[in-house]
Amino acid sequence: MIKQVKDLKILCIYPHFRKFLEGHTELDKHLKKYLVGNYTMPPSLALPIIAALTPEEIELKLIDDNIKEKIDYDEKADMVAISCFTPQAQRAYEIADEFRKRNTTVVLGGIHPSTAPNEALLHADAICVGEVEPVWNQILEDCASGNLKKIYKPDKTYDLASMPIPKRDIFKQDIYKWNAHLVLTNRGCSVRCGGCPIPEKEGTRVRLRPIDNIVEDIRGMPYKEFYFTDDTIMLPGKKYKKFILNLMERTRELDVSIFVASTMMMISEPEFYKKLHKGGVSSMYTIFGFDRISSKLLSPDCTPQEWQQGIDLVRMIEDAGIHFFASFGIGFDYQDERVFDTILKFTEDSGIDLAEFYIITPFPGTPLGIQMEKENRILHRNYNYWNHGNIVFKPKNFTEQELMDGFYHLWKSFYSDKEEEETLRSFTLKV
Known about the structure:
TIM Barrel; single chain; 431 residues; 6-stranded parallel sheet; 14 strands; globular; 2 domains; alpha/beta; 35% helix
């Protein structure tokens, strides 16, 4: 007899992943004092979106492996749905394999299965490649009828006007220490940065989520702090500028604290950042290394004019009342050992007081990952260590030891003279 969709029982699992400074005992005192790299991030949006798409009559249970919720592999379920990004992939495969040993159907989705589908299929009955919204109902129907396909991939991009409000209450608020969440503003990106999988997973055409939908999402959250998950809205284009300023007009009355992400490819207008601040933006998380502007800043041939333009942008954002949080990448082919002193000098010259330092990682499906694979520079595929805190490729202008020593040098030197109250001033909740 074919099972009815409404009778399905689904286990949604969020696999454990190593934080990128985990295991680096030399940096323990920095973690304990400044919390950088050691705070509890809001859970992924993927599973709350799946929960919102799932009919209420279907039994759906969340298990978060990151907070050590027990996984009962013998629990009877019609399907186990696992969403993962690369640092979670190893653990996701372990969990999937255990369930499949017991003949429980497993579906894998998320960034990693989308960019490494052939690998993921070795551990799953089916995978979702790309966006889940257009195919989730079909997956449920096929699961109920016992006719799952191997691969589910949307035949067209998803209209974000149809996006449901993520069902965040599947994450029990009383067991999470971080009182913030993630808010999606758009999907897709036309800029192919070397380390980013977004164009591969979501396409190169940028789709903006309707502002009314975003505001409804924000109003329904139990928190006043949240992250915009998408750095595309900070790109210097009229379309993005108009969108985010219109959004700020709506959020300025909500008494919220917004964390925005970007590269150094930003608008250079003081009034723009003042308007962002009025709208509730309190922190600008800025990634250095991949985009053309920051890669120039970190390269040996940066001109004095380019250097000053970088400093001016940081000061422009800080002067508007937005805390500048820098994330500096090391290990690029255009860098050598001089980059460590260059980074520290830039933080000093620009007055940056909150920063993190990461080792580039050649994630599957990214331009960097494709290049490293072609050049046979991948050292291993133990994805537990593919988290920006370990060396998983052969550097070009460093030995592996030189790169790791530089990583430690940056963390220790930068925080040697910083005050905790200053560095964490945009984080109202300490965990």
